[in-house]
C-alpha cells in the first residue's frame, strides 16, 4: 500500500501494479484517483458558494407517494379485494381454500408445503418414484379430482394404491359377461383419475390373486383355464393400450374383447361336451354300400348294435369321423385364371391379386399348371408368393408355375380396359349422345348409361372436338406434352391439320429423323445424333472440369449462356425417397469412371436449389471426397435484376452467406 502514499505513481509502479493485479495500467490509474479523492456520502455538505448549509440528501428527489396517489392506490385495493371476495363466493370451499392458501395468505404456501399440510405428499412421492416434478404434477391432479377435503385415502384410490371394492366388481362383471355394468365401472374409475393401464394392472393383480387361491384350494369361483386365459388376454390388452393413440377407447375395446372371451367355453368343457354326445357310425357312401352287398350292410348293423369292448378312454370321440371336412369343405381348384385371381383376392391378398391382373400374360392354364409371361413391372417374388398361397389352400395339389417368353394373352387389366373402351365407343355411337356432343362440342362425358349399365371413363373425362377418333388421339397426344394441356393440344392439333404442308408434314419428318438418329451420349448423357456428342468431341473445351446437371434441359440451359466451356455429365434425375429414386437410379457410376480415367480436377454441381437437388449435391460431394478432386456448387442468391423486398428469406440468407468481395471481382 506504500505505492499509493506518494503524490503520483511512476510508470514503473503503474506497470508493476497492473501486472500483479492483472488489469490494464489505465484501470490502475483510475483506481488510484478514486482512492486519493475524498469520501462522499448523502450527509456530506454541499459547500455551495452562497454559504447555504445543506447536504447531498437534500437534493435527492422524494419518491414517497403523495396523498392523492395514496388515495387512488387504497381505492384500487378495496375494489380488488371486493372483486376477489365475490369471486371466492362462487367457488367451492375446496377451491377457495386452495386459492387462499396459495395466493391470498400473508404467508403463501408452496405446492409442496400444501401437500405436506394435507398429508398427501408421501404416497405421491412413492408413486412418482422419487421424482419431485412428477410428484408435484400428481399433487395438482389430486387437488383437482378430490372432493371437499383432500385426504390420503383419496390420493391412494386415485393412484390405485387402495384395494377398493370397485376393482372386484369390475373383475366379476368381466367374467360374468355383464357388458353394460363393465363399461360403467370402467368409465367411473377413469373419471376418478385412474389411467386405463392402471385399471388393467389392477385386474391382473386380481387375476393373480384368484389363480393363487385356486392353486391352494381356497376357492373355486373360477376355473383355472378361465383364469389363465383371462391373464393372457389382460397382458395382450395392456400391450395394445400402450401402443394405441387413444388409451381410454383402447381400454374399452380390450374389456369388451375379454368379456366376450369369458363367455366362450374352455377346452376342458368342450372335451366334456363332446364325450356326452351320442356316438354315430361313420358315414359310408351309398356307392360303397351297394358294392359291398347286403351281407356287409348286415354285418355293419350288427357291429353297431353289439356292445363294444372296453376302451382305454371311456366315451372317447370317434376319431375316424371328419367333422371338420364335413363342415368346412376344401376349396375347389380354380378352373380358369380369372377364378384363380378371384380366389387370391378372397384370401386377403389385394396387392398380389392386382399384380396378377396387371403383369401376368397367360399362355396356358389348367388346374395346377400355369404358364405365363411376366410384365416388366412384375415383382421377382411373384411366383413364390402365389405358390405359398396355393400350397396352403390346396395341399393335395402340386402346382407348377412357369415363365415363358411367348407373347401370351393380354393381361386382365388390358382385357378390362378393352371392354370399357368398347362400351364407351358403343355409348358414344348412340344417336342421342352424338346429337348432344354436336350441339355442345366442349361437353364433358363423365358417364354413359347405355346398353350394359354405366361404363366409367378409364382416363378421365373425354373432351371432344367434333372430329373423328384420329383427331381425338392427336389432341390427346399433344395435350400430354410438357407445358401443354387439353386446350393447347386442341389448338396445336387444329393448326397442324389446317397447315398440313407447311407445319404438319415438316413436323412428321423432323420427328421421324429424331426418332431414327438422335440417341443418348454414352459419355455425358446428352442427346445428339452422334455418339459421343459434339460437346464431348470438342477439343477446345476444358478437359479438367465437369459440370454435373440433373437433366439434358439443364445442360442446354447452361450451354445457352456461353459462360461455361468445360464438359458435362447428366445424372438423369435427383434423389427422392418419396418417388423411390435412389443412388442406383442415377448416372453416378459413369461419373466415377470418368474421374478414374480422365484428368479431371474440378466437379461443378449445377443442381436445382430444391430440397431434392441439394440433397443430391451433398450426396455426390460425399461420394467424390476420396477421388482427390475439387467439388464446387453453383452460387445461390439474388438474381440479376431482382429486388430484395420480393425475395424469400432463404434466398436472402444464402446470398448473404455467399457474398463476394467487389474489389477482388473488379
Automatic annotation (TrEMBL):
Residues 296-309, 317-330 have a biased composition (Polar residues). Keywords: DNA damage, DNA recombination, DNA repair, Metal-binding, Zinc, Zinc-finger. Gene3D superfamilies: 1.10.8.60, 1.20.272.10, 3.40.1360.10, 6.10.250.240, RecR Domain 1. One of its GO terms (molecular function) is DNA binding. GO terms for biological process: DNA recombination; DNA repair; DNA replication. SMART domains: TOPRIM. Residues 544-639 form the Toprim domain. Residues 283-330 are annotated as: Disordered. InterPro entries: DNA_pol3_clamp-load_cplx_C (IPR008921), DNA_pol_III_gamma-3 (IPR022754), DNA_pol_III_gamma/tau_C (IPR022107), DNA_Rcmb_RecR (IPR000093), HLD_clamp_pol_III_gamma_tau (IPR045085), Rcmb_RecR (IPR023627), RNA_pol_sigma_r3/r4-like (IPR013324), TOPRIM_dom (IPR006171). This is Recombination protein RecR. It comes from Stylophora pistillata (Smooth cauliflower coral). The lineage of its organism: Eukaryota, Metazoa, Cnidaria, Anthozoa, Hexacorallia.
Amino acid at each position: 500500500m506504500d505505492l499509493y502514499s506518494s503524490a503520483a505513481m511512476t510508470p514503473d509502479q503503474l506497470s508493476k501494479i497492473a501486472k500483479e493485479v492483472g488489469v490494464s495500467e489505465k484501470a490502475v490509474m483510475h483506481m488510484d484517483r478514486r482512492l486519493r479523492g475524498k469520501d462522499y456520502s448523502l450527509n456530506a455538505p454541499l459547500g455551495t458558494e452562497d454559504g447555504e448549509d445543506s447536504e447531498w440528501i437534500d437534493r435527492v428527489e422524494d419518491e414517497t407517494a403523495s396523498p392523492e396517489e395514496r388515495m387512488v392506490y387504497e381505492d384500487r385495493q378495496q375494489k380488488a379485494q371486493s372483486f376477489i371476495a365475490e369471486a371466492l363466493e362462487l367457488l367451492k370451499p375446496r377451491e377457495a381454500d386452495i386459492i387462499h392458501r396459495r395466493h391470498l395468505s400473508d404467508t403463501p404456501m408452496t405446492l409442496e408445503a400444501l401437500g405436506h399440510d394435507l398429508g398427501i405428499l408421501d404416497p405421491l412421492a412413492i408413486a412418482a418414484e422419487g421424482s419431485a416434478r412428477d410428484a408435484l404434477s400428481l399433487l395438482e391432479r389430486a387437488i383437482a379430482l378430490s372432493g371437499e377435503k383432500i385426504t390420503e385415502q383419496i390420493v391412494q384410490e386415485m393412484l390405485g394404491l387402495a384395494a377398493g371394492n370397485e376393482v372386484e366388481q369390475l373383475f366379476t362383471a368381466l367374467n360374468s359377461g355383464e357388458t353394460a355394468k363393465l363399461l360403467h365401472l370402467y368409465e367411473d374409475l377413469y373419471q376418478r383419475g385412474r389411467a386405463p393401464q392402471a385399471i388393467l394392472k389392477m385386474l391382473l393383480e386380481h387375476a393373480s390373486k384368484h389363480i393363487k387361491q385356486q392353486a391352494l384350494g381356497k376357492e373355486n369361483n373360477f376355473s383355472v383355464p378361465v383364469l389363465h386365459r383371462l391373464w393372457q388376454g389382460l397382458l395382450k390388452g395392456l400391450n395394445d393400450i400402450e401402443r394405441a393413440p387413444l388409451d381410454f377407447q383402447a381400454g374399452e375395446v380390450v374389456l369388451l374383447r375379454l368379456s366376450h372371451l369369458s363367455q366362450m367355453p374352455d377346452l376342458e368343457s368342450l372335451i366334456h361336451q363332446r364325450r356326452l354326445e351320442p356316438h354315430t357310425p361313420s358315414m359310408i357312401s351309398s356307392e360303397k354300400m351297394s358294392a359291398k352287398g347286403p351281407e356287409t350292410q348286415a354285418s355293419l348293423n350288427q357291429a353297431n348294435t353289439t356292445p363294444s369292448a372296453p376302451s382305454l378312454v371311456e366315451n372317447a370321440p370317434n376319431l375316424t369321423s371328419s367333422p371338420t371336412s364335413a363342415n368346412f369343405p376344401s376349396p375347389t381348384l380354380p378352373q380358369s385364371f380369372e377364378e384363380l385371381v378371384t380366389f387370391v383376392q378372397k384370401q386377403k391378398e389385394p396387392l398380389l391379386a392386382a399384380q396378377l391382373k396387371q403383369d401376368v400374360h397367360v399362355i396356358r392354364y389348367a388346374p395346377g399348371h400355369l404358364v405365363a409371361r411376366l410384365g416388366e413391372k412384375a415383382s421377382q417374388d411373384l411366383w413364390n408368393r402365389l405358390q405359398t398361397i396355393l400350397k396352403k389352400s390346396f395341399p393335395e395339389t402340386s402346382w407348377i408355375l412357369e415363365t415363358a417368353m411367348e407373347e401370351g394373352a393380354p393381361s386382365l387389366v388390358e382385357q378390362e380396359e378393352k371392354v370399357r373402351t368398347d362400351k364407351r365407343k358403343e355409348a358414344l355411337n348412340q344417336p342421342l349422345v352424338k346429337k348432344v356432343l354436336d350441339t355442345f362440342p366442349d361437353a364433358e362425358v363423365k358417364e354413359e348409361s347405355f346398353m350394359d349399365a354405366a361404363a366409367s371413363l378409364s382416363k378421365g373425362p373425354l373432351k371432344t372436338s367434333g372430329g373423328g377418333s384420329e383427331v381425338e388421339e392427336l389432341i390427346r397426344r399433344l395435350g400430354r406434352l410438357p407445358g401443354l394441356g387439353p386446350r393447347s393440344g386442341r389448338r396445336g392439333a387444329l393448326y397442324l391439320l389446317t397447315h398440313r404442308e407447311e407445319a404438319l408434314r415438316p413436323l412428321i419428318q423432323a420427328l421421324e429423323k429424331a426418332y431414327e438418329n438422335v440417341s443418348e451420349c454414352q459419355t455425358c448423357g446428352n442427346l445428339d445424333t452422334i455418339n459421343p456428342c459434339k460437346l464431348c468431341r470438342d477439343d477446345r473445351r476444358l478437359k479438367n472440369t465437369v459440370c454435373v446437371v440433373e437433366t439434358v434441359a439443364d445442360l442446354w440451359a447452361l450451354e445457352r449462356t456461353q459462360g461455361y466451356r468445360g464438359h458435362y455429365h447428366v445424372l438423369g434425375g435427383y434423389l427422392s425417397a418419396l418417388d423411390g429414386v435412389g443412388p442406383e437410379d442415377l448416372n453416378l457410376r459413369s461419373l466415377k469412371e470418368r474421374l478414374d480415367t480422365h484428368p479431371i480436377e474440378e466437379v461443378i454441381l449445377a443442381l436445382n436449389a430444391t430440397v431434392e437437388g441439394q440433397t443430391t449435391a451433398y450426396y455426390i460431394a460425399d461420394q467424390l471426397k476420396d477421388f482427390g478432386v475439387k467439388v464446387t456448387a453453383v452460387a445461390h442468391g439474388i438474381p440479376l435484376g431482382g429486388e430484395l423486398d420480393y425475395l424469400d428469406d432463404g434466398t436472402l440468407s444464402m446470398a448473404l452467406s455467399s457474398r463476394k468481395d467487389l474489389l477482388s471481382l473488379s
